[in-house]
Amino acid sequence: MRSTSQYNGSLVSSYLLHKSYGDAKWRFGKEEISVLCGNFPLGALCKRSGVLRSVTNEAHIRTSDLKDPKPSFQTEKEKMLANYVPVYVMLPLDVISPENQLSKPDKLRNQLKTLKKADVDGVMVDVWWGIVESNEPKSYDWSSYRQLFQIIQEEGLKLQAIMSFHQCGGNIGDGVYIPIPQWVREIGELDPDIFYTNKNSVRNEECLSVGVDDKPLFYGRTAIQMYSDYMKSFRENMEDFLEAGMITDIEVGLGPAGELRYPSYPESQGWVFPGIGEFQCYDKYLVANFTEAAYEAGHPEWELPGADAGEYNDSPESTKFFKSDDGTYLKAEGDFFLTWYSNKLIVHADRILDEADRVFLGCKVKLAAKVAGIHWWYNHPSHAAELTAGYYNLNNRDGYRPLARVLSLHYAILNFTCVEMRDSEQSEEAKCAPEELVQQVLSAGWREGIEVACENALSRYDINGYNQILKNSRPNGVNKMGAPKLRVSTMTYLRLSDELLEDQNFKIFKIFIRKMHADQDYCPDPEKYFKPNIEPMERSKPEIPMEEILEATQPIKPYPFDKETDMNIGGNILDFILSILGIMKSIFFK
Questions:
Q1: Burial of 258 (0-12, 13-18, 19+ CB in 10 A)
Q2: Beta strand pairing status for 31-34 and 25-28?
Q3: Active-site residue among 206, 251, 259, 451?
Q4: pLDDT tens-digit profile of 457-467?
Q5: Three-class secondary structure of residue 341 per DSSP
Q6: pLDDT under 50: residue ranges of the chain
Q7: What is the pTM of this model?
Q8: Quick one: CA dihedral 367, 231, 233, 145, positive or negative?
Q9: 59 within 8 A of 452, measured Cβ to Cβ
Q10: Radius of gyration of the chain (CA)
Q11: CA–CA separation, 210 vs 51, rounded Å?
């Protein structure tokens, strides 16, 4: 069990390399146990009671898994409906204003009616910690969110709710500023190390450092206890919407932009694409944790990366750490650091998702977690931008399947971004490879037996972007005989705006929705989809050792993806027709 009361405040890990880096021994409490280290260290993890949960699908099956996951399809319509992918639309970031007021409710209702007429299945909304608990600890004001949810329910739409424990502002696409709660920031003024920090001691106030997950610095509560209390209050105050089945997913924020990563590429600190970013582990809590880990590994001389790791806007080859031929990342010291750095995220996700599972136990919702689509420098041997974000992904080491394995312990959905991007649209100089990255990450989720969902990273209104999403949503196309081999569970479109609803843009969007639905009519009953029903949430799987999680770093060839979608919404001809219609409209209907 992972209740936060079971984690003490010590920075010493219960999983630490003992004696020397090469020893295949680990210290657990006062005992030494031998494990298979392979070619990499397991790194230092936050102290915890017990071990990570069991992931073996054959050995740990929940009640709902005993049912046949593939229903028997009889009619042609039922067979095609098995290919249906529901489409959700993200609401504006400030649909609830920083002052905790519903923004322009009449306009919003009209927009939701428009989405509903286009057969959109639901919407996604950020539920901002910085708005609801802004004034003082444990003082929650859900009134505006209840008003919003009521409108969504009245318009017949489903809802994906994000537990947004991060700041809005400072990331790509952020057009509004919603900080984390004021009283938390005031604690940060006295102890700035509660925030992520780069090597130059610059703090990032977007979210709290994983270093304080178990530190009772917040009026006696740890960070994880604050997140848990917030989710408990959400459940208590939204019980009627949960019971009605209107809320389908609870996406748990796990870092900046709600993503499971470090804030390694903040625009607020001068980062611009395609900079490699910087490591964010220099607050005193993480520094002490790493120092202890290195000492326990028999290498007290090892230090966190310094100037050799470069600056935000460097390229890999301009640094010593990420050089392709003899970079530090290839050496034992670099390997130890990167394993420690990435493992901190693994434990962070496991612990918070465990709390979320406890909170929503019995609710007919699914948990979800978002992973960032860092596609630049993917084709460089170092994968530098992924490494600084905490994804220890190399050509010979899978950095994403361990994340999927952790999510599988909590029956959580892996939500991934940048599914609209093509390699041909990206910078060759930055060695971008969004298509290969999407293929790797979606395959990682499917290999670990979990549901995978997707989002577009940037707003797109063009046919090529939509067709790419369609391809990635059903990588091997529609199966006219029933359920496709591979499909995402949902697609969430970024985002609702006046531009999306413009005549020509919305015409294309409606065609896109129809194709995501496999040319089927809107279906309000998810039990008829290929992926099975939403069952009442069950308790997370039993705990397992970290080495079982890291066995998933062994690379496995991703599933093959088709080159193009078989549900193409049009091409150059449709683009030409729509552009002509747009020109005619501008001439004759000024």
A1: buried
A2: antiparallel
A3: 259
A4: 999 999 999 99
A5: helix
A6: 1-51, 53-69, 590
A7: 0.88
A8: negative
A9: no
A10: 23
A11: 19
- Going through 227-302 in order, the beta strands assigned E by DSSP cover 247-252
E-assigned strand segments in 434-511: 452-455, 491-493
Q: Token pair for residue 566?
A: 């078989």
Contact 434, 468 (CB under 8 A): no
Q: How far is CA 92 from CA 178, 254, 493, 586, in A?
A: 13, 20, 12, 28
**Burial bucket for residue 511 (CB in 10 Å: 0-12, 13-18, 19+):** middle
Residue 127 tokens, joined: 């539920």
CA-CA distances (angstroms) from residue 357 to 4, 172, 351, 454, 540? 13, 30, 10, 22, 7
Give the tens place of pLDDT for each residue, 159-185.
999 999 999 986 666 679 999 999 999
Examine the residue annotation and report whether 455 is marked as an active-site residue of this protein: yes
- Residues 263 and 312: beta-carbon distance below 8 Å: no
259 is catalytic: yes
Structure tokens at 288: 């002490």
Strand order through the sheet with 16-17: 16-17, 25-28, 31-34
* Active-site choice (205, 251, 278, 455): 455
Separation CA 394–CA 381 (nearest Å): 7
Does residue 536 have a cis peptide bond before it, meaning omega lies within 30 degrees of 0? Answer: no
**Angle at which helices 503-516 and 572-588 pack, to 10 degrees?**
150
